[in-house]
Design a protein that fits this description.
The protein has 13 helices and six strands. The chain is of the alpha+beta class. It has two domains: 3-158, no CATH class; 164-306.
């Protein structure tokens, strides 16, 4: 059973009965679910995931102290701590994981400030482009079991994905890196005899191309160890995953060099087709750099448009 299913079952069997018995008047102010850090929140957990920080539990989201006082929060924390320590063969740890509590009673403004820097998830364009993508994903992953106040749901809706101008800025930067690393520097590094630099160029190209694919799908790219799994599940351009893997896991000797450059150009062509199909670029060529600047030119906010093209990557 996946971690999210375990969390929901644990909440239904022990969490909700505890709330109904001890905090019935507080329930209208609460939300419960499992979101945030941990592979289980994004559905990527497996048997390997259970070697650390994997336990039964859920999040109880409270509004700020202006609506729920400290004493009530403390009593709720004690009640949560008193829930059964073992469930479905898993045991809750007495120690918090590195980085602080991921489960239990969490103030909504505290959670959102930790992830976004703001207590309500309302962001300026500059804040959007500065935030790690994984932090944004941790605001909207998992599942909310119930949300009587509507506060955490409203924040998740605001953070569901980048505003269009921000998406364009990040996409423009990713395309420019693809052009520089893949279409230009990969072969030049090999011509210089810099084989390590050439493979670094391959990595930069693949990393940027993966970002571009997620941006074209309007999905946050997860932490790198889960990015290929998430990529394969995307509705568009998921087939690029096999090409990315080939680029990363093969050498650059002999005929392989020309094969890999051909793959790079093929990936570039696939993304250019997607850009033009979605009306994101007006350039008519195979040069990703020109498409990067065309995507950037389509940004409506003049401040964001005039920032350095790599400002969001």
């Amino acid at each position: 059973m996946k971690g999210l299913d375990i969390a929901r079952s644990y909440f239904e069997q022990y969490g909700m009965p505890m709330l109904e018995e001890k905090f019935p008047d507080l329930i209208p102010q609460l939300a419960a679910g499992l979101i945030g850090e941990g592979s289980e929140c994004s559905g990527y957990d497996d048997q390997v995931s259970r070697d650390h920080d994997f336990e039964p539990g859920f999040c109880l989201f409270l509004p700020g102290e202006d609506r729920v006082d400290r004493r009530t929060a403390f009593l709720l924390e004690r009640a949560y701590a008193a829930l059964p320590r073992e469930f479905m063969g898993l045991r809750r740890s007495l120690m918090q994981p590195v980085g602080g509590a991921r489960r239990g009673v969490i103030r909504i403004p505290v959670f959102l400030t930790a992830k976004t820097g703001t207590p309500d998830g309302r962001l300026t364009p500059e804040q959007w482009i500065a935030l790690p993508e994984q932090s944004l994903l941790e605001c909207v992953n998992g599942e909310v079991f119930f949300d009587n106040s509507g506060e955490i749901t409203a924040a998740r809706e605001r953070l569901a994905y980048y505003p269009e101008d921000v998406r364009r800025k990040k996409l423009a930067g990713a395309l420019l890196i693809m052009a520089q690393a893949g279409q230009y520097n990969f072969s030049r590094c090999l011509d210089h005899g810099e084989t390590a630099a050439a493979q670094t160029a391959v990595f930069e190209f693949v990393n940027a191309a993966m970002s571009a694919v997620f941006l074209l799908n309007k999905k946050y790219k997860p932490y790198y160890k889960w990015s290929f799994r998430a990529l394969r599940a995307l509705p568009e351009l998921s087939f690029e995953a096999e090409l990315f893997e080939l680029l990363l896991t093969t050498d650059n000797d002999g005929e392989r060099r020309e094969e890999k450059y051909g793959i790079i150009e093929g990936i570039a062509a696939d993304l250019i087709d997607a850009l033009r199909e979605k009306g994101l670029s007006e350039a008519v060529c195979g040069d990703l750099e020109k498409h990067a600047y065309s995507v950037n030119d389509g940004i409506e906010d003049p401040t964001l448009r005039n920032m350095h093209i790599l400002a969001a990557v």
